[in-house]
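To: structure subgroup
Subject: Chain for Friday's discussion

All,

I'm putting the inputs and outputs inline so they're searchable in the archive.
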Amino acid sequence: MIAKPSTAQLIEAVNSELASKVSPELDAGTTRVVLDMAMAVLQGAATRSANELAWMREEEHAVAAVAERLVGDLPSATGLAEAYRAYTDNRSDSLYLADALADYERISEVLSCSAEAVYADGDPARIAAVQELFEQRLANENAVIGSFQAVGRT
């Protein structure tokens, strides 16, 4: 028994019940595929709910650190400077998801402008620094999505 279940634990408990009690009762077919797809989505939601805020804040801090250096190093990158200023002027330390998502949206614009600026500049070290940020984002997305599953196949 879980005395204080997290959202992830609740979702995982539902998934476990579906897998152990509902899934064995279904024949292969459309209904089984729908159940398998729902279970895959639930697993992604469990992973995301347990980590999403931390991932967003970690990525946000990493992008901001790189962008701050780029703004200083690339004074002609006005789009980057404007996006970074919009981020810093409006950043919130709130733990409410809507506020964190707003910060994440702003830092995503900073990341996009950073990519444009470093590719226009052509410096390999700057390009590598921004590429690393995209790799961090992709790793987080892959953690949520997980590996490919051919749902409905046993």
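Points worth raising on Friday:
Helices lie at 7-22, 30-73, 78-90, 97-121, 124-145.
The chain has one domain: 7-145.

D.
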